[in-house]
Write a structure and sequence with these properties.
By secondary structure, the protein is of the alpha+beta class. The chain contains two helices and five strands, in the order H-E-E-E-H-E-E. Helix content is 20%, strand content 30%. Strands 1-2-3-5-4 form a five-stranded antiparallel beta sheet, with helices on both faces. It is globular and about 35 Å long.
């Protein structure tokens, strides 16, 4: 079961409670424009910078393919988050499409924070 897996420690990264991080993300202003890290047929990852660090927004649509999933994992691997699902601080399913994916009918939105435990 994934909830029993220990969260990995990353050098130079503090571990903080998901609720604390989610509140920080919701109330902080961006210090830089969002950086697009990945855009596939069914997935999108943006890196967002706030005064206390950074976090990632991940959009997965109903159009996601196995290749998209592999690209998502490779992108998070490159960012130093090989076990990114353990770093999700917020998740939402929306039953309508996304402007980046005009043929999609539903999406899942994930907020991934490197400091989450």
């Amino acid at each position: 079961m994934i909830s029993n897996l220990p969260a990995p420690a990353f050098p130079g990264t503090r571990k903080r409670d998901r609720r604390e991080l989610a509140a920080e993300v919701l109330t902080s202003n961006f210090t830089r424009p969002a950086k697009e890290l990945l855009m596939t047929a069914g997935a999108h990852i943006s890196k967002l910078t706030i005064p206390t660090g950074h976090y990632y927004d991940l959009v997965l649509t109903d159009l996601v393919t196995p290749e998209c999933a592999m690209s998502v994992n490779a992108t998070f691997d490159a960012e130093g988050l090989p076990r990114w699902p353990l770093k999700v601080i917020d998740w939402e399913r929306v039953e309508n499409g996304h402007p980046y994916f005009p043929d999609s009918t539903s999406i899942q939105l994930f907020t991934v924070h490197p400091e989450a435990f």
